[in-house]
Amino acid sequence: MMKTRIGLLLGLAASVAFAQDAILEEIMVTGYRSDADYYEMPAVTITRKADFLVQNIRLTNDSRSPDLRKTEIIETIQNLIRRSQSMEGMALSYGRGFLEPIDLDDEALQLLEDRQRVDTNYIDIYAKVALNPVRSSKVQIDDLREFISGAKIAGRTEILPLGDIGLSIIGPEQYRYEIIQKIAAENMRVSQAMNAECEITIGGLEGRVQWERTSVSELTLYIPYGMEVSNCLD
């Protein structure tokens, strides 16, 4: 009979703690995985719709006074927030890698000096729209772009989209045990296909869930596990 060992059980148990802490993290995902890198993913993956379409935008202002620059940028953000509240699924966030709702009182939300332009400040934030599964992704991308282009600008503030529209997903760790169950099912199929008495060792399950963008609106989620077959008896 095929025997299975689940490697690094202590690490797997420890992973539960950080999985619970990470369950509500909103993760930003940008570019697509290259064809060459695709083969580095494990055999077992799951595909899920992202939670949001996300566009990074930069607000810049070159008014003479630093105080005026800040006032006009903040006013523009406030206008964006008010407009987002009138549009279904629209929202604003900020952060690096992990996105959080805009909080104008948060000290982390700071204006930066533009080194390419004198007397100019800027801030990078994200405009996003919740993906609606019954609407086409293209239409929702158009909605997001219209939201940005239709912003009410204060003073000398300018809004510049940065890069392509990305995706975000909330709490990828919530899919951990769905992925592990699928790995276990794959192990059973391997056992049946081998038609021999062997030991199968699975390691790496203590690692965090990872993700790659694989379409306009979808992500492929996986745990980078490894499987080793040994001691087979005919």
Provide structural commentary.
With 234 residues, the chain is an alpha+beta fold. Strands 2-6-5-8-4-9 form a six-stranded antiparallel barrel. A three-stranded mixed beta sheet has the order 1-10-13, with helices on one face. A three-stranded antiparallel beta sheet has the order 3-12-11. The protein has two domains: 3-49 and 172-233, no CATH class; 52-170, Alpha-Beta Plaits. The protein has five helices and 13 strands.
SS field, number of helical segments: 5
CATH class descriptor name of the largest domain: Alpha Beta
- Determine the fraction of residues in helical runs and give it as a percent range: 25-40%
Shape: elongated
Radius of gyration: 23 Å
Task: Tell me how many strands there are.
Answer: 13
SS-based class: alpha+beta
Q: Mean pLDDT score, rounded?
A: 84
Q: What is the architecture of the largest domain at the second tier of CATH?
A: 2-Layer Sandwich
Count of domains: 2
Low-confidence parts lasting 5 or more residues at pLDDT below 50?
1-19
Give, in spatial order, the strands making up the sheet with the most strands: 2-6-5-8-4-9
Instruction: Bin the strand percentage.
Output: 25-35%
Task: Look at the structure and name the CATH superfamily of the largest domain.
Answer: Multidrug efflux transporter AcrB pore domain
Major sheet characteristics: 6 strands, antiparallel, barrel
Termini separation comes to 11 Å
CATH topology of the largest domain: Alpha-Beta Plaits
Order of helices and strands: EHEHEEHEEEEHEHEEEE
